[in-house]
Amino acid sequence: MAGGLAGTGIAVVGGDGRQVMVAQALAKKAAWVKTCGLAGVPPGASLFPVASLAEAIDGAGVVVFPISGVNAGGIVGSNAGVEIKIGPEFFAQLPVSSVVATGSLPRPLQEAAAAHGIKVLEYAERDEIAIPNAIPTAEGAIQLAMEHTPFTIDGSTCLVLGYGRVARALTKRLVALGARVTVVARNPRQLEEAAAAGASRRALFLLGEEIRKAEIVFNTIPAPVLTAGILEEAPSRLLIIDLASAPWGTDFDAAARKGIKAFPAPGLPGKVAPETAGKILATHLPGLIEEACARPD
User: Which fold, 130-266?
Assistant: First the structure.
């Protein structure tokens, strides 16, 4: 597979409309692509929907799971109304040096893959995909805020927790819409960047003070930051939109007890801009898979 995907069979397993676009892009490069648990696949010369996971991976040198990844229970998301579940034994069915590309993979399954000589490509956080995906995530978060508040973003008081890819895109758009934005983060350099983008800045240890003044909080920190103690300082009218990866950074039970509306917002690109999100994956994922195939490990 070092020469590319031309002689390689690929199984695309699970996903939604974005993964259909990925399958179509891979079909232009690979010997064949079989899909399983994926509705909406159009007919193609080298694109074959099949009924079972076993049939999909038979003869495949690459298996592609969706950007949502494989969860802790081994479940793969599917828009076809079927349950797809993998365990450690799944990797024994693949040829040594095969590539499994997935948004993310639980550590026990990573260890099982390594034990069977399977290469793993976790692509959700790769810059090629995560940076452009930050834009529909930010736009989707603002859409949710507009739907769940009785006031405009213009003039609202917003906290953005963290200052990674999504927070940068979000802060820029909130400032442009006229919100009063404060970025709360640990990293002094990130706080400097936030100030240059037009936001106020506060160290994370001051979150308890800042949350008292907030109307909307967008969390991007994948660690417990909006704890019961912090939420005790928050007004009950507060809206919390948690954009971090599971298990998120908000104590949702504590928020409910305080009467605060709080919810996680995973997978926004596929929900609010599926065509754009699909194009991002279809453009960049085939090249990342080719790189993974060429790795010596």
Answer: Rossmann fold (3.40.50)
